[in-house]
Amino acid sequence: MDKELSRFLTFWNLLDDTEKELLNQNAIVKNYLKGVTMHQGSGDCLGVVLVRKGQLRTYMLSPDGRDITLYRLFPGDVCILSASCVLESITFDVFIDVEEDSEIITISSALFQQLAKQNIYVETFGYKMATNRFSDVMWAMQQILFMSIDKRLAIFLSEEIKNNKSLELKITHEQIAKYMATAREVVTRMLKYFSQEGIVKLSRGKITIIDETKLKKLTLK
Amino acid sequence: MDKELSRFLTFWNLLDDTEKELLNQNAIVKNYLKGVTMHQGSGDCLGVVLVRKGQLRTYMLSPDGRDITLYRLFPGDVCILSASCVLESITFDVFIDVEEDSEIITISSALFQQLAKQNIYVETFGYKMATNRFSDVMWAMQQILFMSIDKRLAIFLSEEIKNNKSLELKITHEQIAKYMATAREVVTRMLKYFSQEGIVKLSRGKITIIDETKLKKLTLK
């Protein structure tokens, strides 16, 4: 697993042999099925998550059950917020759902904590990854709080095209609403408008982008 | 200035003498008047800000000029987001306004960058401070997105009582609206309701809390 861990963990070359061995022996590879909640807030402290395959969604949850997507994780991504108990500066909790069947490497919180204590480069990595996510969250917040819904939907669809490398997106209005932290009705209304404008074609459980140029224009509005 | 810097900068004892001297010689003390915008987004990279006296407000700004308060800074606080150009993981920009006449120690971005490059503990400090602010921002977002206005206003007033050590708050509805990232009308309406409930007494430019127990109850709702 050496090689793979060294790709995810930028501090790899600054570990001594014992530390490398410890990681090698104790990193756990596990498969998660789509729909599972992998990490749930404060009760949990799963550890550092490395995404080998699949897709995860990180979100925050209101007391009455509404959720707001903070960012999504794709192959190659590292999530440190699922080890928030290790980093004292993180005083909030997030939830993580599995969006597609996923293969995940986990480094337990206890192990990460031990390494962070004895090796400053591991601690720095933790806080740096957290700061990366801070940037993601600020971007999401700016979208939610400042941007018009049409622009946000256009940006969302453009990213989906990129992620799926296809103009045909298999996604429900409900799912889009979750990712965009808005109501399903709002998404449906806006998609109907996009369809009238000849930007998309809607069919059951599928959205096909038929005018990508027009969509791009909306993202730049 | 040694002693003071060592209180703000938790990496102080991990610096060598040259590094300490460099900080001592180049930290700048400056007074800022209330109302000034001290740091404005991307154009700027002021440096690391240490608050000696006064109060600052950090916020994000929409393209059409609305602003959302992220957190406030009080004496003893460190702000790293004003040196975002130094930390590559920070890809967003914030604005900082001076809320009260303030005395500020600034460590220039160039100096902080030099130290962070040659001393890993300085770099870690930077990312750790950023992660602290991430927690603040998540708290603010949870309030803005999830909490009812009456609870938020009650929490805000309780904090003001604590900060000012007084039940008499000299603050306008406009200012409260800014801090809470809501509209002035909303604040005025809610304060009127608080006043009818016997929680506060309103007078020109002043809010007096007359039933702190009732106010506390609202914060726990």
From TrEMBL, chains A, B:
- Tell me, what is an example of a GO biological process annotation in this record? regulation of DNA-templated transcription
> Superkingdom, according to UniProt?
Bacteria
Q: Which Pfam families match?
A: HTH_Crp_2
- Which keywords appear in this protein's UniProt record, sorted alphabetically? DNA-binding, Transcription, Transcription regulation
Domain annotation HTH crp-type: ranges: 147-213
Q: Which PROSITE patterns match?
A: HTH_CRP_2
Extract the GO molecular function terms from the UniProt entry: DNA binding
The name this protein goes by in its record? CRP/FNR family transcriptional regulator, anaerobic regulatory protein
Query: Which species does the entry assign this protein to?
Result: Thomasclavelia cocleata
